[in-house]
Amino acid sequence: MDKELKVAIVTGGASGLGLATAAKLVESNNRTIIIGRNEQNLQDTAAQLGELCSYKVFDLNNLKAIPQLITEIINEYGKIDLLVNNAGINMKKAFTEVSDEDFEQIIQTNLTSVFVLSREVVKVMLPTKSGCIINISSMAAQYGIPYVIAYTASKTAIEGMTKAMAVELSPEGIRVNCVAPGFIATDMSAKALDSDPQRKQKVLSRTPMGKLGLPEDVAEAIVYLASDAAKYVTGVVLPVDGGNSIGF
Protein backbone atom coordinates (compact mmCIF):
# COMPACT_ATOMS: atom_id res chain seq x y z
CA MET A 1 0.00 0.00 0.00
CA ASP A 2 1.27 3.45 -0.98
CA LYS A 3 1.84 5.37 2.26
CA GLU A 4 1.92 8.65 0.34
CA LEU A 5 -1.71 8.45 -0.73
CA LYS A 6 -4.22 10.31 1.40
CA VAL A 7 -6.91 8.19 3.05
CA ALA A 8 -10.47 9.52 2.79
CA ILE A 9 -13.74 8.29 4.31
CA VAL A 10 -17.06 9.15 2.63
CA THR A 11 -20.24 8.15 4.48
CA GLY A 12 -23.20 7.31 2.26
CA GLY A 13 -20.67 6.90 -0.52
CA ALA A 14 -22.58 4.49 -2.77
CA SER A 15 -25.20 6.88 -4.16
CA GLY A 16 -26.01 10.49 -4.99
CA LEU A 17 -23.64 13.15 -3.68
CA GLY A 18 -21.56 10.59 -1.79
CA LEU A 19 -20.91 8.55 -4.93
CA ALA A 20 -19.98 11.67 -6.95
CA THR A 21 -17.63 12.72 -4.13
CA ALA A 22 -16.00 9.29 -3.85
CA ALA A 23 -15.49 9.25 -7.63
CA LYS A 24 -13.79 12.69 -7.60
CA LEU A 25 -11.58 11.71 -4.65
CA VAL A 26 -10.45 8.54 -6.40
CA GLU A 27 -9.84 10.58 -9.56
CA SER A 28 -7.65 12.92 -7.46
CA ASN A 29 -5.65 9.88 -6.31
CA ASN A 30 -7.04 9.45 -2.78
CA ARG A 31 -7.50 6.04 -1.20
CA THR A 32 -11.25 6.27 -0.57
CA ILE A 33 -13.30 4.20 1.86
CA ILE A 34 -17.05 4.40 1.34
CA ILE A 35 -19.38 3.56 4.22
CA GLY A 36 -23.02 2.51 3.93
CA ARG A 37 -25.62 -0.06 4.88
CA ASN A 38 -26.26 -1.80 1.55
CA GLU A 39 -23.41 -4.20 0.78
CA GLN A 40 -24.47 -4.79 -2.83
CA ASN A 41 -24.47 -1.05 -3.63
CA LEU A 42 -21.12 -0.58 -1.90
CA GLN A 43 -19.62 -3.54 -3.75
CA ASP A 44 -20.86 -2.28 -7.13
CA THR A 45 -19.56 1.23 -6.44
CA ALA A 46 -16.14 0.02 -5.30
CA ALA A 47 -15.87 -2.17 -8.42
CA GLN A 48 -16.89 0.78 -10.59
CA LEU A 49 -14.39 3.19 -8.97
CA GLY A 50 -11.44 0.80 -9.07
CA GLU A 51 -8.66 -0.30 -6.74
CA LEU A 52 -8.36 3.01 -4.84
CA CYS A 53 -11.91 2.53 -3.54
CA SER A 54 -12.87 0.08 -0.79
CA TYR A 55 -15.90 -0.15 1.46
CA LYS A 56 -17.18 -0.90 4.95
CA VAL A 57 -20.72 -2.10 5.59
CA PHE A 58 -21.85 -0.16 8.64
CA ASP A 59 -24.99 1.41 10.08
CA LEU A 60 -24.00 4.78 11.54
CA ASN A 61 -26.96 4.59 13.93
CA ASN A 62 -24.95 1.96 15.79
CA LEU A 63 -23.13 4.69 17.75
CA LYS A 64 -21.47 2.33 20.22
CA ALA A 65 -19.67 0.49 17.38
CA ILE A 66 -18.20 3.61 15.73
CA PRO A 67 -14.94 3.61 17.78
CA GLN A 68 -14.35 0.00 16.69
CA LEU A 69 -14.99 0.93 13.06
CA ILE A 70 -12.33 3.67 13.22
CA THR A 71 -9.87 1.32 14.95
CA GLU A 72 -10.41 -1.17 12.12
CA ILE A 73 -9.78 1.48 9.46
CA ILE A 74 -6.60 2.67 11.21
CA ASN A 75 -5.33 -0.90 11.55
CA GLU A 76 -5.95 -1.45 7.86
CA TYR A 77 -4.89 1.87 6.34
CA GLY A 78 -2.65 3.44 8.98
CA LYS A 79 -4.26 6.89 9.00
CA ILE A 80 -7.27 9.01 8.09
CA ASP A 81 -6.66 12.31 6.27
CA LEU A 82 -10.20 13.23 5.29
CA LEU A 83 -13.71 12.57 6.58
CA VAL A 84 -16.72 13.57 4.48
CA ASN A 85 -19.88 13.32 6.60
CA ASN A 86 -22.32 12.90 3.74
CA ALA A 87 -24.81 10.25 4.95
CA GLY A 88 -28.20 11.66 5.85
CA ILE A 89 -31.93 11.03 5.67
CA ASN A 90 -34.91 13.28 5.07
CA MET A 91 -38.60 13.06 5.95
CA LYS A 92 -41.42 15.17 4.55
CA LYS A 93 -44.28 15.50 7.03
CA ALA A 94 -46.53 18.24 8.38
CA PHE A 95 -45.11 19.74 11.58
CA THR A 96 -47.86 18.39 13.87
CA GLU A 97 -47.59 14.89 12.41
CA VAL A 98 -43.88 14.44 13.19
CA SER A 99 -43.70 12.00 16.11
CA ASP A 100 -41.04 12.09 18.82
CA GLU A 101 -39.58 8.95 17.24
CA ASP A 102 -39.49 10.53 13.77
CA PHE A 103 -37.66 13.56 15.13
CA GLU A 104 -35.19 11.50 17.17
CA GLN A 105 -34.43 9.23 14.21
CA ILE A 106 -33.48 12.12 11.90
CA ILE A 107 -31.42 13.83 14.62
CA GLN A 108 -29.60 10.59 15.42
CA THR A 109 -28.70 9.83 11.78
CA ASN A 110 -27.98 13.36 10.56
CA LEU A 111 -26.40 14.89 13.65
CA THR A 112 -25.47 12.56 16.50
CA SER A 113 -23.74 10.00 14.29
CA VAL A 114 -21.81 12.82 12.57
CA PHE A 115 -20.65 14.05 15.97
CA VAL A 116 -19.58 10.58 17.18
CA LEU A 117 -17.83 9.66 13.93
CA SER A 118 -16.03 13.04 13.80
CA ARG A 119 -14.96 12.74 17.45
CA GLU A 120 -13.41 9.31 16.88
CA VAL A 121 -11.67 10.41 13.66
CA VAL A 122 -10.33 13.58 15.34
CA LYS A 123 -8.72 11.39 18.03
CA VAL A 124 -6.56 9.77 15.34
CA MET A 125 -5.91 13.06 13.51
CA LEU A 126 -4.69 14.99 16.57
CA PRO A 127 -1.34 13.19 16.96
CA THR A 128 -0.43 14.01 13.34
CA LYS A 129 -1.67 17.62 13.65
CA SER A 130 -3.28 17.35 10.24
CA GLY A 131 -6.57 16.36 8.72
CA CYS A 132 -9.73 17.66 7.18
CA ILE A 133 -13.42 17.17 7.96
CA ILE A 134 -16.20 18.23 5.63
CA ASN A 135 -19.82 18.25 6.74
CA ILE A 136 -22.84 18.50 4.47
CA SER A 137 -25.61 20.99 5.18
CA SER A 138 -28.61 21.99 3.07
CA MET A 139 -30.72 24.89 1.87
CA ALA A 140 -32.99 23.96 4.79
CA ALA A 141 -30.38 25.61 7.06
CA GLN A 142 -30.26 28.77 4.91
CA TYR A 143 -33.99 29.61 4.98
CA GLY A 144 -37.26 28.04 6.08
CA ILE A 145 -38.65 25.12 4.09
CA PRO A 146 -42.01 23.62 5.12
CA TYR A 147 -42.57 19.94 6.05
CA VAL A 148 -38.95 19.14 6.92
CA ILE A 149 -38.71 20.29 10.54
CA ALA A 150 -36.41 17.52 11.86
CA TYR A 151 -34.14 17.66 8.80
CA THR A 152 -33.92 21.46 9.16
CA ALA A 153 -33.03 21.17 12.84
CA SER A 154 -30.31 18.62 12.06
CA LYS A 155 -28.72 20.61 9.22
CA THR A 156 -28.80 23.92 11.10
CA ALA A 157 -27.04 22.16 13.97
CA ILE A 158 -24.45 20.76 11.52
CA GLU A 159 -23.53 24.31 10.49
CA GLY A 160 -23.12 25.42 14.12
CA MET A 161 -21.10 22.31 14.89
CA THR A 162 -18.85 22.97 11.87
CA LYS A 163 -17.95 26.41 13.22
CA ALA A 164 -17.41 25.20 16.79
CA MET A 165 -15.24 22.31 15.57
CA ALA A 166 -13.23 24.61 13.30
CA VAL A 167 -12.46 27.05 16.13
CA GLU A 168 -11.36 24.26 18.47
CA LEU A 169 -9.53 22.05 15.98
CA SER A 170 -7.89 24.48 13.54
CA PRO A 171 -5.13 25.39 16.04
CA GLU A 172 -4.37 21.64 16.06
CA GLY A 173 -3.92 21.54 12.28
CA ILE A 174 -7.35 20.08 11.52
CA ARG A 175 -9.54 22.08 9.15
CA VAL A 176 -13.33 21.73 9.32
CA ASN A 177 -15.66 23.05 6.63
CA CYS A 178 -19.18 22.54 5.37
CA VAL A 179 -20.84 22.41 1.94
CA ALA A 180 -24.50 23.41 1.60
CA PRO A 181 -25.87 21.89 -1.60
CA GLY A 182 -28.79 23.59 -3.28
CA PHE A 183 -31.23 21.57 -5.32
CA ILE A 184 -29.19 18.88 -7.02
CA ALA A 185 -30.40 16.37 -9.60
CA THR A 186 -30.19 13.07 -7.68
CA ASP A 187 -32.61 10.15 -7.40
CA MET A 188 -33.64 11.41 -3.97
CA SER A 189 -34.46 14.94 -5.16
CA ALA A 190 -36.06 13.72 -8.40
CA LYS A 191 -38.50 11.65 -6.35
CA ALA A 192 -39.34 14.65 -4.18
CA LEU A 193 -39.60 17.27 -6.93
CA ASP A 194 -41.15 15.30 -9.79
CA SER A 195 -44.09 14.31 -7.59
CA ASP A 196 -44.63 17.97 -6.65
CA PRO A 197 -44.47 20.17 -9.80
CA GLN A 198 -45.39 23.28 -7.79
CA ARG A 199 -42.41 22.78 -5.47
CA LYS A 200 -40.14 22.13 -8.44
CA GLN A 201 -41.29 25.36 -10.11
CA LYS A 202 -40.65 27.27 -6.87
CA VAL A 203 -37.14 25.81 -6.58
CA LEU A 204 -36.24 26.77 -10.15
CA SER A 205 -37.83 30.22 -9.95
CA ARG A 206 -35.75 31.21 -6.92
CA THR A 207 -32.51 29.75 -8.31
CA PRO A 208 -30.86 32.55 -10.33
CA MET A 209 -29.09 30.02 -12.56
CA GLY A 210 -32.53 28.56 -13.35
CA LYS A 211 -31.56 24.88 -13.22
CA LEU A 212 -30.75 22.06 -10.83
CA GLY A 213 -27.11 21.38 -10.00
CA LEU A 214 -25.28 18.13 -10.67
CA PRO A 215 -23.82 15.82 -7.99
CA GLU A 216 -20.38 16.56 -9.53
CA ASP A 217 -20.79 20.26 -8.69
CA VAL A 218 -20.98 19.42 -4.99
CA ALA A 219 -18.17 16.86 -5.29
CA GLU A 220 -15.86 19.48 -6.85
CA ALA A 221 -16.48 21.83 -3.91
CA ILE A 222 -15.71 19.05 -1.42
CA VAL A 223 -12.50 18.10 -3.24
CA TYR A 224 -11.46 21.78 -3.26
CA LEU A 225 -12.06 22.17 0.50
CA ALA A 226 -10.14 18.94 1.14
CA SER A 227 -7.17 20.01 -0.98
CA ASP A 228 -4.09 22.11 -0.25
CA ALA A 229 -5.66 24.80 -2.42
CA ALA A 230 -7.92 25.47 0.60
CA LYS A 231 -5.17 25.23 3.24
CA TYR A 232 -6.15 28.63 4.73
CA VAL A 233 -9.90 27.93 4.62
CA THR A 234 -11.66 26.69 7.75
CA GLY A 235 -15.09 27.08 9.35
CA VAL A 236 -16.88 28.09 6.16
CA VAL A 237 -20.29 27.02 4.91
CA LEU A 238 -20.02 26.99 1.12
CA PRO A 239 -23.34 27.01 -0.72
CA VAL A 240 -23.23 25.16 -4.05
CA ASP A 241 -26.67 26.16 -5.13
CA GLY A 242 -26.78 28.19 -8.36
CA GLY A 243 -27.53 31.23 -6.21
CA ASN A 244 -30.62 29.66 -4.60
CA SER A 245 -29.81 30.84 -1.06
CA ILE A 246 -29.60 34.48 -2.22
CA GLY A 247 -32.28 34.18 -4.91
CA PHE A 248 -35.55 36.12 -4.94
Automatic annotation (TrEMBL):
Example GO molecular function: oxidoreductase activity, acting on the CH-OH group of donors, NAD or NADP as acceptor
Superkingdom in the source lineage: Bacteria
Keywords for the protein's UniProt record, in alphabetical order: Oxidoreductase
Entry's family note: Belongs to the short-chain dehydrogenases/reductases (SDR) family.
Name of this chain's protein: NAD(P)-dependent dehydrogenase, short-chain alcohol dehydrogenase family
